[in-house]
Amino acid sequence: MSTAQANTTPNAYLKTKVLTASPTELRLMLFEGAIKFCRQARHALNHNDHEALYNGIVRAQRIVLELVNSIKPDPDPELCGKLTALYNYIYRRLIDANMDHDIKAIDESINLLEYERETWTLLMKKLADEQPAAGQGDDAESDSDDKPLASIGPRPGAGPSYGQAASGGGFSVQG
């Protein structure tokens, strides 16, 4: 296999994975990507590789911006405002890490992103557990897309939605 083929094969796999993922899975992938790039930046900082540090942090920042931009606050502006504030804080800490070469800022960003990823994973599991019960008597293709939502996800109009999820409130996700 040539170098060019080796470099495109993972990209083809990733492209397929992204194109076939539900909006909730895409959001999970965003969390995982941001954590991955933060860890790469942390490793680069430990090895005094300023270019890799910059590249890792900038990639993580772009993902955090996508997380912010994917929030649609219509059903629950207060909750979405809190999420936006959290993501803006993470973004600011990444700026601090880049400007000051601050490993504590990177570590804090990683911890917050890991917590968000875990919360998202638990929400996905809870909704998957509730989905069969909600669909009793309906065909397998029927899901809960018509629940009230604050849309969070990069692909509007596709995939499962979250309603009355973990918090018991009106916050939900529709891709």
Report on the architecture of this protein.
The chain is mostly helical and 175 residues long. It has a domain of 106 residues: Flagellar protein FliS (Four Helix Bundle (Hemerythrin (Met), subunit A)). 67% of the residues lie in helices and 0% in strands. The protein has five helices and no strands. The protein starts with a helix and ends in a 41-residue tail after the last helix.
Q: What percent of the residues sit in helical stretches (DSSP H or I)?
A: 55-70%
Beginning-to-end CA distance, first to last residue:
38 Å
The low-confidence parts are: 138-175
CATH class of the domain at 23-128: Mainly Alpha
Q: What is the name of the CATH topology of the domain at 23-128?
A: Four Helix Bundle (Hemerythrin (Met), subunit A)
Rough shape?
globular
Secondary-structure class = mainly alpha
Number of helices: 5
> How many strands appear in the DSSP assignment?
0
- State the fourth-level CATH superfamily of the domain at 23-128: Flagellar protein FliS
Radius of gyration: 18 Å
Order of helices and strands: HHHHH
Query: Residue-averaged pLDDT, rounded?
Result: 78
